[in-house]
Structures are given as C-alpha cells and as structure tokens.
Specification:
Radius of gyration: 31 Å
Number of helices: 29
Structural class: alpha/beta
Largest sheet: 10 strands, mixed
CATH architecture of the largest domain: Up-down Bundle
Shape: elongated
CATH class of the largest domain: Mainly Alpha
Strand order of the largest sheet: 3-2-1-4-5-10-9-6-7-8
Number of strands: 10
Strand content: 5-15%
CATH topology of the largest domain: Na+/H+ antiporter like fold
Low-confidence stretches: 1-10, 531-535, 648-661, 749-753
Mean pLDDT: 79
Length: about 750
Amino acid sequence: MEPAPTGRPCPAALVLTTVAASAEGGKSAGPSEFLLVAQIVLLIAVGRGLGEIMQRLGQPSVIGELLAGILLGPSLFGWVWPDAQHAIFPKTPEQKAMIDGIAQFGILLLLLLTGMETDLKLVRKVGKAAIAISIAGILVPFACGFALGEFLPDALLPNPQARLVASLFMGTALSISSVKIVAVVVREMNFMRRNVGQIIVATAVIDDTIGWIIIAVIFSLASHGTLDIASVAKAVLGTLAFLAISFTIGRRLAFQLIRWANDNLVSTAPVITVILLMMCAMALITHLIGVHTVLGAFVAGILVGESPILTRQIDERLRGLISSFFMPVFFGLAGLSADLTVLRDPNLLMLTGLLVVIASVGKFGGAFIGGTVGGLNRRESLALASGMNARGSTEVIIATIGLSIGVLSQNLFTMIVTMAIVTTMAMPPMLRAALAKLPMSEEERERLEREEFEKRGFVANLERPLLAVDESVNASFAAHIAGLIAGMRGLPITVLHIGKRAKEQEKGRDEEESPEAVVKKAAEAVSASGDQDVRNVDVTTRVRKSGLGETIGDEAKKGFDLLVVGIDKVAATKDRFDRKIEDIGAEFEGPLAIVAAKGKHLKQPMPEALNILVPVSGSGVSKRGAEVAVALAQAGSGSLRVIYVATTRDKGAQRGASRGLSQEAGILKDASDLAARYEVDITTTLRANRAPEAAILREIETTDVDLVVMGVDRIQADRLSFGGVADAVLRQAKVSVLLISSGEARPNSTEKA
C-alpha cells in the first residue's frame, strides 16, 4: 500500500484525517451517525459541484454526480489515500446499510419524479411512430446485450449457473434510454416542442415504461433462481393488472386524494405527505405481486403528474429536495460502487469498450430503423437515433438493482456504469449536430408560435377555478360561464354556495338547474364541439359555514387561480359594488371574474350561444379580457366583436405594436391574430375619438351583442374599484357584463378601460 504524500497537509486532508480518526474510534460502538453525515456532506458537496461544472459544459448534472462517486471511491480517492477512504466509506454492513437505506428511498423518489415528468398526452399524440421506434430501438440492442451476456466469461458472473438472468439484465441495460436524461437535454436545447423532440421524448417514455416492466419480470425471475413459469406468469399478470387498475380507478383516486389533502388538511405541506404515502403504497403493492418497487413509484409519479391541480407547486417542492439531496447521494453511491481501477486489466477494458460499442451501435441502429418504419425522414431518424443513445440514470438504477440482488458482479456493474457515462456524455453533442441540420416546416413553426403564445396566456395556464354563487338567476349565468371555461381544458371546478339557503342548495346539487348541473351541461357542450372529455370536468360542492369574508379567505388558501362570482346584486349605489362583492374582493387576491347577467340572460341564463363584445386598448389587462372573450366565443359557439378604445393611461403604450401600422390598427390586428389562433371569426371596430365608456355603450346599442367582456385593473382604494370606465359600463349597459380583473391592485393614478 502506498504511503500518503508527505509535506504540509492541506485543510481538506486535515478534515479527512479527523473524520478517519473519529471513525476508527467509533468502530466498537457500531454504526456512526457522524460518519453518515460526513458521507452525505461529501457526496452532496462534490456531486453538486461537479454537476454544476457539467451543466456549464453542456452535459447533464447527473454525470457530475456519478463522477463524484467515482472520484470519492476506490477509483481515485481510495487509490491515492486508501486509509482515509476506507475510514469514511467503510465496508462494514451496519454502516453501509445506513446510507444504502437513504439511497434506496432515493431511487423511489427519482422514479416518482421521472413519472411526474412523463407526458402521456405527448405519447398519445405521436403514439404510432413512438411505439414503432421504441420497439425497434429496444429489440435490436436487447438482442445484442443478451448475446453478449451469453458469451461473457464465467469469471465475470457472480453465479454462472444463473447466466440467463444476467444476460437478460445485460440486454435491458443496453436497450433502455433514460427518459430523464433525454428530456433534460432536449429541453435545455429548446427542442422539447419540436416534432422530432416530441417523438424522442415520447419514445424515451415508452422505453422507460417497458424497461421497468422488464426489470420487474427479471427481478421476479432472479428471486426464484430458476425460470419458474408460474412465478413469472404471476409477475406478468400482476403487473398488467396493476397497470390497468392504476390508469383507470387509480388515476381518479390519486386526483381525489390530492384535492382532499389540499382542501381539508391544515398541516404543513399535506399534499406532499399524501403523494409520498401514495408512492410508498404503490411500491409495496408492486413488491407484493413479485416485481420491483421502482415500478410502483414510477406509476405513482405518472398519476401525480396527470393530476389537474397543483402540479406546478408539487413539482417545485419535490424537485428541490430530490435534486439537491437524494440524487447526489444515490448517484454518488453508484459511482462509489464502480471501481474503474479494474479497467487496468486489458481484457476488462476491451470488454468495456465492446460493451459501449454494442450499446451505441445497437441503440442507434435500432432507433434509426424504427424511425424509418415510423415514417420519419433520414434527418429526423438520425436526430432520433442520436437522442435515444443516452443511458444515464436508468442504466445506473438497473445496474444497482442487479448488483444488489447478486445477478451482476462488481466488474460487470463497473462496466455498465462506464457505458452509461460514456453514452450519456456523447449524446448532447451528437443531438445538437443532428438537430442543427433539421429544418422547420411551416406547420411546425405555426404550432410552436401558438404554443409559445399559450404558454404566456391566462386561460391556457388556469388550473383550478372557484365559482362562488347564491340562489339567483345571475348565479346560473355565472355557472354557465364557469362551465365553458372549465370545459375547454377539462379543469376541475369547485362550487361554493354563499347564499342564504346555501345548505339547501348543496342538497339540490343534482337538480337540473343547480349551479353544479349548469357547469356540467356547459362543459359537456364544449366537449361535444371539441376534443375534450367531459369526464375530466370534476365538480365539487362546498358550503359557506361562517362569515363571507372568512369563508372566501379559507378557500383562497387552497390554490385557486380564478374566482368566478355570480350573486344576485353586483352594483350598489354611489359607484360602489355590493357589500358582498367587496368582501369577496378583499379576501381573494387572485384574478376575479365578476358576472352581471342582464337582458335576455335573465330569462335564459344558459344560452346556446354568446355574442360577445370585448374592448381592447393594448394594455396587458385588456389582452387578458380579449383572451377570455376569444375562449368563451370558441366554447360558446357565438360571435365576437372587438372594439378599440383609447384611455389616458394607455395612450402611446402600444405604439408600433405591429410594424408599419398605426397604434390602433396594430392593436386590432393583434386581437385578430389571437382569434385566428383559436379559429374564431371576429369583427373589429375603431372608435378612438370617443370616451371609452361612450364608445363601448354606443357599440352595444348599435349591434346585437349580449355580453361585454372587459379586462380591468384593480385600483388601490379603501374599497373594491376597477375605475370609472368599468363602473359606467357595468351600470349603464343593457346587456350582461363580465369583468376579468388583474390579481394585484395598481395605484389610482389614471383611468383604466
């Protein structure tokens, strides 16, 4: 054993010496918590540091975390200073079990996060091509890996009699792409929404799903030691039953659990708790049916990701903990288990090189063939094959499972980890080069522009509206409006009864004219005219149990991003809203949609069509009103008329909105473009020389509109106010009015249309 270098020790060496001494002193006392914390600190610090460097070099951060483990393991640290390395990362079963437990739970969380990132809608959209590519991309490298496993020397196998299982593991390790690595790289290159990017990610999703099912079956096979047809059939049938139940009953149950936890529990982060419990329960179920726990965690992640509420908040909270703690620990430990010094053996080095070549050629060739069969052209197939060659985290997890159950030897594990690192590092530059030569079609360009617009839009980013109603006709009209909004995207909606007979209204929620029934009927009409599924519109009823302000305040904490208000009396005297409206506005800080039914909507609160007028001025809040109006026109199968009105505040705000056009014409063109994106026909009117309220009221009198939709700002005041223009239209218009407010109040410096 080489002695440590002499000379003045560096601070890091002093720290390591202290840790080693502490470890030596604590050997007789059993597992050391001090050592556990020291191991975690090293893995996180070095892993995150190298991950940062890798990202700056255009590589996934997981490569840095793997390299951190390799540097801290026998490959470098153990070679340079073996005593300190053995002291910090001892081989004693008790000490190793402590950090292994964290790593094993980390695997479940990693698969939960991977499942949450799985976009099943994307898979359905490009399903035929992705399935063909995935099957070909798995079969070819799987056959190559299996053949390699059959010809491996007995010395490389921990149990030569179980060569079949080892060969199956080798085939799986060579054939499955890492959806996490693929998605990260494609996203970082801004190709996630390109046609070929969607196919790459969808194919990786199918790859991963098939991979975990294969691993589950192989795990069952390895557990029994022989090819027990009965046990394998049990595992396969159990897996299929588990998947079938999960994606039918389980999908709705997961959503209901998340909503229930969010709406009823008052403890800190209750939704995260429910998600973790659900993940663990599904992992235990898959274990009981004879397959690996990772499949349960992965499916749990898919169900959580498909939950139509709170997805952004859940993702942010979980991602931070997993990325900063569990990922460096797990991948660092995987690197620690890989001893690259064994590659000094020419035979092992040659076998590792052969493994990398077989994995790359097999996956590249299989994906290219699949792309050709799936209808892609040569350039698209090349880009696809380049993107699918990244193994990354998936292969490391597979290799770790194989090592833990004794199917893979330490040397085979090292070879697979090396292959995963090499193929993952080669993937980004190959994909960049392939995508750089891939031109964008006109259809694809239009789709990307529309998606980019929707990404910044208000309606497209709604997740969960709240409808507050009493027993009035206006409540029915507000329910109709809310149902149209919810039906367009299948949003879950909560109906809050705040009237005097709230409890009676709750009991009658199944009656034909109840707000809940109106919401569902409107959503069903949208579904019938489009491609939405009305079954996705989930309606929940809640009842006011205390003061109005307190009730709204309690509901506001539950993550609603739009409050639609429909009560009998909206406006009061002296330029003020009714006291109930003011109480609601004071407690709900997010966007408000205040509905005032008038004219024919008092007799027919559930109209078959809406003839909408929307004033625009070029400001952000007027654009929000236009967006809601376009959405309602599309959902309600009515007409849309846009009128430009100039205000003091907006004068010159949008000068040059469309190059070569006047300000007014440019703003109207923007509105026309917005309507065209949703295939809504509009009529535009310019009344720039009139006062805004006069122009709007005049347009109402001279046309057949029956609903005015206005985007308005909240104005800072001691009462709820949207400015004089909105107030004048609300009071003087003889047709229904819908005010869509901003979420924050602005200073009362100028007038707002």
